[in-house]
Amino acid sequence: MTVYVEIVLLDNFCLDFFILCASALTLRLKASRLRLFGGAMVGAIGATLSVYVSGVFFACVVKAAVLVLMCVAVVGFGKKLFWYILATLAYTFVSGGCIVGLFHLFKVPYLNADGTFYQMNIPLFVYVAALFLVAFGGYALYKYGSDVKKIMPHVVKANLSFGGKTTSVRAFRDSGNTLVYEGAAVCFVVRKIGKFDEYFADCLLHGNVVCVPLCTVAGNAKVCAVPASLTVNGEQSRRVYLALPQSKCPSLYDIIIDG
Question: How many angstroms separate the CA atoms of 234 and 241, rounded?
Answer without folding.
Answer: 19
